[in-house]
Amino acid sequence: MKLEIACIPGDGIGPEIVAQANKVLDQVAKKFGHEIERKEILMGGASIDVHGVPLTDEAIATAKAADAVLMGSIGGDTNTSPWYKLPPEKRPEAGLLKIRKALNLFANLRPAYLYPELAGACPLKEEISRAGFDMLIMRELTGGLYFGERHTTTENGVRKAVDTLTYTEEEIRRIAIKAFDVARKRKGKVTSVDKANVLDSSRLWRSVVEEVAKDYPDVELSHMLVDNCAMQLVKDPAQFDVILTENMFGDILSDEASMVTGSIGMLSSASLNDTKFGLYEPSHGSAPDIAGKDLANPIATVLSAAMMLRYTFDLDKEAEAVEEAVRKVLAEGYRTGDIMSEGCTLVGCSKMGDLLAERI
Amino acid sequence: MKLEIACIPGDGIGPEIVAQANKVLDQVAKKFGHEIERKEILMGGASIDVHGVPLTDEAIATAKAADAVLMGSIGGDTNTSPWYKLPPEKRPEAGLLKIRKALNLFANLRPAYLYPELAGACPLKEEISRAGFDMLIMRELTGGLYFGERHTTTENGVRKAVDTLTYTEEEIRRIAIKAFDVARKRKGKVTSVDKANVLDSSRLWRSVVEEVAKDYPDVELSHMLVDNCAMQLVKDPAQFDVILTENMFGDILSDEASMVTGSIGMLSSASLNDTKFGLYEPSHGSAPDIAGKDLANPIATVLSAAMMLRYTFDLDKEAEAVEEAVRKVLAEGYRTGDIMSEGCTLVGCSKMGDLLAERI
Ligand SMILES: CC(C)[C@H](C(=O)O)[C@@H](O)C(=O)O
Ligand SMILES: CC(C)[C@H](C(=O)O)[C@@H](O)C(=O)O
Questions:
Q1: C-alpha closest to that of B313 among B286, B341, B275, B350
Q2: Cβ atoms of residues A122 and A114 within 8 Å
Q3: Do domains A1-103+277-360 and A109-261 have the same CATH topology?
Q4: How far apart are CA B175 and CA B143, in angstroms?
Q5: Which atom in ligand 2 lies closest to the alpha carbon of residue B92?
Q6: Which of A105, A284, A356, B331 has its CA 20 to 30 A from that of B225?
Q7: Major location, coarse class (chains A, B) (predicted)?
Q8: pTM, two decimal places
Q9: Which atom of ligand 1 sits closest to the CA of residue A247?
Q10: Is there a contact between B226 and A252 if contact means CB atoms under 8 Å apart?
């Protein structure tokens, strides 16, 4: 099979970690008899430096023409990087928001689970982490506050800023369907998170989710307020299977959930639209402080590539081979700095990529 | 001194816990020679049952006429209580939002700290909790998404809901000043939390906070994105002193922070305006499942009364006497069910109130 992949190395550690994922993918192609065709796309700071904007229309066209996009990470140090002197719509993150919208990537899947081998890195007490946990945050990614109209004006000398949070029932329905579909393949539980005691958008959210639930009598639905969810993720993460929520709540809760696992260098994500197309990226950021030092952990990106094999290309066996390679390397005691612990073998980013590719 | 206090027992465990705080306050008055004049106010479900609305104008007038308001908790089980069949603006929580706005209570102070005696209840690993932590969330309480215009419409048969997030520089400045003032009396650190990489309101927030910071060269200011803050609260809560943030982020982060302490039954809060007036309430909710069973922990409400003595009445010695009584009772091993552990003595809500009052 021919896999047409657009790669966005991006900023910070992005290029290093994408290079390792590509090593692993090349090995998969070799072993399973596939052919990979790659196009590289500039985005974020890397694009600003060349084109003056974080994403060109040409880059979007290249992404659209591919089957899937594999991304590293975007952005720099907001306090020191010159990119953050630019007007907001020209900064690195604007490229990320733009590509999500342009490719209609409304469904962001962020798995958060405890790696048995890395249980020691979990910030929670053993009493809580013992139960293990394995959830998936289904975040709506192209609506709500992050894509609403916004403006800053000055009235009688007083500055005033307005952002708007809009959801239509169609936007809610399509992401809810994704959540219920995924829950069916997992533990059959959806927790829909909102602030229905205050927001109109949350009340609409809740009622549309309940409509969708009727088509999934085999999936158990419950509702939780966002403030309570922020507590429950710390108190008892094992209670969750699929968390379904809107863009901003999903941004906050998925980061909290990934930190709760203690394995943020290991967590992948997929951003999907209504076709097989997807953009795959690690859950973590661009870590400009360690960029270019061969210190980054490429595993989240490698696992994002595995998600790509599974969701876009339906290559389940190949995806499993990648996930198995990760398990093996961890079981053999290899660790990058962020997940290092006593008795393990410390390796750099590139070496970790080699080890993973060798185990395919 | 004469203390004119309006009491809002509210719903669920509210009446029980407020009764204990009143016991303690009566003892303080007796010992220190003050006089307390109380008026009771119905709010939330309790008001709906009598007046059909969660807060009457008369109730607001009574609150305004008092020096301070002591509140229990508001609301019931959203799945089963008939209050939640009412239109949104008639539900219990609408009363809470209305009183905050009517009394201009724009500054919500939520301390979150680890009680040494209750360190065992902290959900974090000893490695992290060992350092101890003691932060205060300064949440803007009368602006932003929770008070913006909202509406739900149907266009071409498709429902659409809109909420708006508005901040003026004046609203930001006055809460920032409160945060810097408080930080000065604490560890001198303000972490301002926003989503300035996406929202206009956050960018205005950041620039106004920076302007205010110029008047406080002795206070250290840093900015943090809300998604990162949700992670840092779990990873390293000891890094924080004062967290300054807008209404919705504050709602989510303050609940997360209080759960991280493991002592949510112990955490008080104050909602202040520009005068000495304040509304004081526990950080936790109305726990309808244990209401009326003498099982609730009244300590958060008792400590909220201590905040009232300190902030509204400038009665520092009296406030300390209350806080000291809490420390003593804990040191003597008395616990309500929520904080019970081996070797301690289990007591009910009312007994805990008696024990605290006796130690004043
Ligand atoms: C960079 C930023 C705009 C982005 C977001 O909040 O969507 C990021 O935090 C993420 O979660 O992918
Ligand atoms: C009841 C609700 C409206 C309220 C809020 O979110 O402000 C509560 O969660 C709080 O934090 O005081």
A1: B275
A2: yes
A3: yes
A4: 11
A5: 1
A6: A105
A7: cytoplasm
A8: 0.95
A9: 7
A10: yes
